[in-house]
Amino acid sequence: MESKINLENKITIEISNLSFKYPSTRKISSFDQGAKGFKEVLHEISFIVSEGEKVSLIGPNGAGKSTLLLNIAGLQEIKHRKGQIKICGTELNDKNIYGIREKIGFVFQDPNDQLFSTSVFDDVAFGLINYLNKKRDPRAKDIKFIEGRVKESLAKVNLKNVENEMPYFLSFGEKKLAAFATVLSYDPEILILDEPSSNLDPSNRDNFIVLLKRFDKTIIVATHDLDLAYDFSERAIVLNGGRIVFDGNAREVLKDKDFLNANNLALPLMFRKYNDIPN
Ligand SMILES: Nc1ncnc2c1ncn2[C@@H]1O[C@H](COP(=O)(O)OP(=O)(O)OP(=O)(O)O)[C@@H](O)[C@H]1O
Ligand SMILES: [Mg+2]
């Protein structure tokens, strides 16, 4: 009996029959009687992620990757979804959403959605102080501790001498790194990253992959960087048209040219030959 409980505890994310629709942004003509006013984006998604697992979420533009990640992090309206999302064994609902969100470090596809303070230091400190306050941890008021953690997080992502800069004026790649530092600062149980490597230079990308590999918590990364997916994760979930079309070994699926092409994807660069690139 006890071993069963331990096994269940090891499930970090459990998604059952998740469907999601956005209120339609389509201009509905008065002649279009059939228009429902909603756009179905996710259909019957089910999967489980175990503690410490590293998963890549891949799929073409518009497949629903960001929508799925936002749902998992409780950042989409619950009334627009069907099905169930459990985080660390607790079902995500309107009442516990804030408690569950603090378990998750979410890095948005667009770093401009994440950075809002007048200095990089304040942005990185904000999440940490908030997190410590919720835990009633006295270190929330310990300036030396906060300063140390902010510097450490910025050093991890290789951002130097930007603490006092306005995030607005950083380059896009620097903004991505700063956004990553904001979640590293409080060491969440689950990391969810949406297109983290876009705009990173080769050296920062390598550093970033090393960081991800060292991080011993649960990680889901949505990415078009299939070389990153191959390098960092053993498991890949492929979404197409809002449905899961593959869930399994990343190293196998990312070598399967026919499957990738059929799903509007292409081989990782490292496996491409000259004649794989269309004229
Ligand atoms: N806020 C929104 N309102 C209405 N429709 C939306 C909204 N956000 C996304 N969509 C639609 O939902 C679908 C899935 O979008 P989503 O951003 O989840 O895809 P994605 O797989 O992350 O794509 P990408 O690879 O381009 O980041 C798209 O067709 C998009 O137009
Ligand atoms: Mg996206």
Characterise the protein shown here:
This protein is of the alpha/beta class and 279 residues long. It folds into 2 domains: 40-103 and 189-268, Rossmann fold, CATH 3.40.50; 115-188, no CATH class. Helix content is 33%, strand content 24%. The protein is built from 10 helices and 10 strands. The strands form 2 sheets. It has a 6-stranded mixed beta sheet, with helices on both faces. Helix 4 (120-134) packs across helix 5, helix 4 (120-134) packs parallel to helix 6 and helix 5 packs across helix 6. The relative contact order is 0.15. The structure holds adenosine-5'-triphosphate and magnesium ion. Magnesium ion binds next to helix 2.
Please describe the structure with a list of short key phrases separated by commas or semicolons.
279 residues; binds magnesium ion; 24% strand; disordered N terminus; Rossmann fold; 6-stranded mixed β-sheet; alpha/beta
Percent of sequence in beta strands: 15-25%
CA-atom Rg in angstroms: 20 Å
Q: Largest beta sheet, briefly?
A: 6 strands, mixed
Under CATH at level 1, the class of the largest domain stands as Alpha Beta
- How much is the average pLDDT? 90
Order of helices and strands: HEEEHEEHEHHHEHEHEEHH
Oligomer: single chain
- What is the helical fraction, as a range of percent? 25-40%
Q: What ligands does this structure carry?
A: adenosine-5'-triphosphate, magnesium ion
The structural class is alpha/beta
Global geometry: globular
Q: How is the CATH topology of the largest domain named?
A: Rossmann fold
Q: CATH superfamily of the largest domain, called what?
A: P-loop containing nucleotide triphosphate hydrolases
Please identify, by name, the CATH architecture of the largest domain. 3-Layer(aba) Sandwich
Domains, number: 2
Catalogue the unreliable spans.
1-7
End-to-end separation in angstroms reads 61 Å
Number of helices: 10
Task: Report strand order across the widest sheet.
Answer: 6-7-8-3-9-10
For the secondary structure, the number of strands is 10
